[in-house]
Amino acid sequence: MGACVSSSQRVSGSSARQDQRDPNHRQQQQQRSTSRRSSCGKRTDFGYAKDFEGRYAKGKLLGHGQFGYTFVATDKSNGDRVAVKRIDKNKMVRRIAVEDVKREVKILQALKGHENIVHFHNAFEDDDYVYIVMELCEGGELLDRILAKKDSRYTEKDAAIVVRQMLKVAAECHLHGLVHRDMKPENFLFKSTKEDSPLKATDFGLSDFIKPGKKFKDIVGSAYYVAPEVLNRNSGPESDVWSIGVITYILLCGRRPFWDKTEDGIFKEVLRNKPDYRRKPWPIISESAQDFVKKLLVKDPRARLTAAQALSHPWVREGGEASEIPLDISVLSNMCQFVKYSRFKQFALRALASTLNDEEQADLRDQFDAIDADKNGSISLEEMKQALEKDFSWSLKEPRVLEILQAIDTNTDGQVDFSEFVAATCASAGGARL
Description:
Blueprint: H1 15-21, H2 25-34, H3 52-55, E1 56-64, E2 68-75, E3 81-88, H4 95-110, E4 120-125, E5 129-135, H5 142-147, H6 156-175, E6 178-179, E7 188-190, E8 199-201, E9 208-209, H7 228-231, H8 238-253, H9 263-272, H10 287-296, H11 307-311, H12 333-340, H13 343-353, H14 358-371, H15 381-392, H16 398-408, H17 418-429
Antiparallel strand pairs: 1-2, 2-3, 3-5, 4-5, 6-9, 7-8
Helix pairs in contact: 6-8, 8-10, 12-17, 13-17, 14-17, 15-16
């Protein structure tokens, strides 16, 4: 993610773009890197200011990634706290990595001053590193803020306020000839913990400039939010609007519009199928909200609303038709965390689960067996419902319990087996170790 970070964020490596463009890129990169004696980054003078150490005092670590890490720093002149993304020049082996850093800084400079985009302060460099200094956002990620509302009201109007801010980001990008290319909830943070805190777009690592009439031919972004035209290698600014449509769908019903247990399966769903608007809670969601989502999730980008047009829709515009009737999309905190994990993290959790020793597994087996009333080796919807009601005194409606079960049921067979149970347990108890 970008340098406007929370503690759960990481630094995005510039090679991520290339790995997604070309499946053979990583192998090619490794082969080429062995033939080079020094990195392109090490040999490059980026033209940035050289006095970072003199102006900022380093603070706590916030996240790390392939090319460096992100930390809090304090401006020595005024005491302001900022987020700093430090990128290792030695790891910029190829020229494309250098260009990616330059482009990210150029993009942040172009978007500087927008209320819903992380504020860019400056870029610095020394012999070993590039430092990108940005606004520190400490209000947490978008979905975390919504989940925290489980004991209070969360309405269509709340969702519309969030979506409007995302559309403003997309419209601003498109106005500058930019496409964000990775619109997803994880890339939006709240500036502060205040209830009326603005939402900030934070990660422009995959963003790129595009000339009118031109199209991107590479496939980048996150599987759940990728537009059909991206998969068809013929995308433009319209792909950002599709991604916001996916996010809106999730905000309104708590589920993804396109889902499969594999990435290829998700891509096929995006290309071939339509979102489900019949399943609860869609029948009680306002017609205006449904109309808005449907006009964003149009597979033909030429027929899709632009970001500017979407901002004028009656549901999303300020003072518009968004209902203030509470939505019931919150789920139990620990189990719901698993819903938000990427496929990679789910695999990592299952791998972590496999490392538990016999004693640790025995304790979890006892808990699993206590829920598995019919002792058939898996937990059904009814068994999950009974366990939650009896052991935790939670009065849950069946759709809510089904949502929890589906979050844990990674092979989508309608049952939770022991390995899935252990992985979900790791999500709440040991997931912080990842």
